[in-house]
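Database export, one record per block. Field names are fixed; values are copied verbatim from the stored entry.
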Amino acid sequence: MLAALGASVTEADRIARELMQPGQKVYDEVVRAFGREILSAAGTIDRRKLADAAFGTSERPKGRAQELNHLVHPAVGLAQEKWMTEVGKADGEAVVVVEAALIFEAGLEVQFDKIVVVTCPFETRIRRSMSRTRGDEGAARHELKRRMAAQWPEEKKIAAAHYLVDNSGSQPETETKVRELYAKLKFEAVQAG
């Protein structure tokens, strides 16, 4: 929604996926730490296998998310910083957005002028996850809990945020909130530019 309004947007997950491609330093470090069992037959990192190693499974409940984050987040942070600098040089009044779930956990909040937390109730997340993956409720609930366990509690993120977007309503309601947020961010960018 922010991109549609004119913001330059990237995703930390996309950056991390690029950094975990064969031939990249992060790929080598992750494979060295987690073993070749996380690889697909083609030699790429199998994201499901890596997620199981990072967040744990019912057979091996102790995940290694902190270890994975320690390997990946510094490189993602550098790539984000480089991208933001390039966009800022091209347009000093740009609204530049990095979508990331683990900004605070990675200690990267210092890179940003403003932090926006997007939230909705847990049960709404379950329904939306089921809709996207066509999975069952039990699997969606388990996966969300597993991933949330590796994150700061939502209340702590909200307290540290500059802006909050509650997207528990309809898409048009959320779009209205995002337009209001973008107007504020654009005003601040123009003032700073």
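Remark 1: The two ends are 23 Å apart (CA to CA).
Remark 2: The longest strand covers residues 8-11.
End of record.
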